[in-house]
Amino acid sequence: MARYTGSVCRMCRREGAKLFLKGDKCYSQKCTFNVRPTPPGQHGQARQRKMSEYGIQLREKQKCRRAYGVLEVQFAHYYEKAANMRGVTGENLLCLLERRLDNVVYRLGFGASRAQARQIVLHGHITVNGKRVNVPSFSVKEGDKIAIHEASHDIEHFKALREGTGRTLPQWLTMDAENLTGTVSTLPRREDIDLTINEQLIVEYYSR
Q1: What residues pair up with 33 in beta bridges, in sequence order?
Q2: Residues in Cβ contact with 124 at an 8 Å cutoff, skipping those fewer than 6 apart
Q3: pLDDT per position as a tens digit, 158-174
Q4: Which of 29, 35, 76, 113 has a beta carbon 3.0–4.6 Å from 23's, enabling a disulfide?
Q5: What does the alpha-carbon distance between residue 117 and residue 120 come to, in Å, rounded to a whole number?
Q6: What is the DSSP pairing of strand 126-128 with strand 181-184?
């Protein structure tokens, strides 16, 4: 599957917002976005032309897609599914993305970034309700238990997690650090999602 292999810091600079793609570095003073918040490229510091309404909608869609590490076709499928659900389409979209297994693994602190969390899932280190799952797009449900596979407990990265990740958990997740297990106590709601995304602009993009 195609994946972006360039500098992820360029994505943050392009979208003009922190997407937290490099884990702990994004919270430090060494974050590239703190040093160079201008768009990438030789004309990044030049005066930018006023964006059209379509351009604003496109950038918001790209920001959301890149934050969750989802490809264009996948993102369109998520939007279609959200549009067919009851409730507000934009909120449905964000909640569907939050329920991805790689995002849940990241939110629990098992991975420093969503990219690392996706790799952890692909390598078979994660179980859902006791069964190994290696599909990052797997959608969790209320009551699901996400854990590090027993065979992976001795890996240094996971052994260190028993001392706590230091990450603030969203209200819809609970964590048992000693047993390296997290539980989906309820489905995520819009107020539980801390990304600065205007989902209405995404709806307008796909509705044009």
Answers
A1: none
A2: 132, 134, 149
A3: 888 887 666 789 999 99
A4: 113
A5: 5
A6: unpaired
